[in-house]
Here is the input.
Amino acid sequence: MTDKEKFLDVEFTSEFKRNLRSLAKKYRHVRLDIKPILDRIKSGEFVGDRIPKTGDYAIFKVRARNRDISKGKSAGYRIMYYVKTDAKVILITIYSKTEQSNIHTDQIRRILKSYKNENNNMKKI
Here is the structure.
């Protein structure tokens, strides 16, 4: 396997899974809408904007179009993810911009702490 064929290990927090299930009940295309972004992340392309004031955490927010409401990316989904290592990414949360305006950095830290507690055998995040 060459470096170009290498994929990152992508894990999901419970928060991400829960929010995705909730969004899927309202928006039937959510999984199709976010798949291209997840594929890019898995291939090692860190898309979106890095969130400031998160300390040493490399946390990114990326926008995705919601084809079920036809208002473009500005009213679409927001996916937050953490680049833990060169080989591992953790998907923190997903939300609809029409339902939630923003997410505070304290909430991101809380989700990551909860994720770490759920995975006790993991190294320090």
